[in-house]
Design goal:
Blueprint (H helix, E strand, L loop, with lengths): L1 H11 L3 H14 L5 H19 L3 H24 L4
Helix pairs in contact: 1-2, 2-3, 3-4
InterPro entries: TPR-like_helical_dom_sf (IPR011990)
Protein name: Tetratricopeptide repeat protein
Organism: Lacticaseibacillus paracasei subsp. paracasei CNCM I-4270
Length: 84
């Protein structure tokens, strides 16, 4: 929960990368659907779009890979029956 609050604060301050780090710590601590999961999806997409606009293929791949890993986590949560 503290990681979520830290992430929320960082988003409000416009510090997306710091928010991502906090939310990633939250889902690492407890894999579940919720605010951190949703925020990460949105932040990863924002970062991917910025990388695409800058035509930075390495960063595009970085954010796509992070999104894929998050979606893999969601599959584990669904299979385990938790997170609803």
């Amino acid at each position: 929960m503290l990681y979520n609050q830290l992430g929320d604060t960082q988003v409000k301050l416009g510090n997306d990368l710091e928010a991502i780090a906090a939310y990633e710590a939250s889902v690492k601590d407890k894999e579940e659907f919720g605010d951190a999961y949703n925020a990460l999806l949105n932040l990863y997409e924002t970062q991917r779009k910025q990388a695409a606009k800058a035509k930075n293929d390495d960063d595009i791949q970085k954010w796509v890979t992070k999104t894929d890993a998050l979606l893999d986590m969601s599959k584990r949560v669904m299979r385990s029956g938790f997170g609803y």
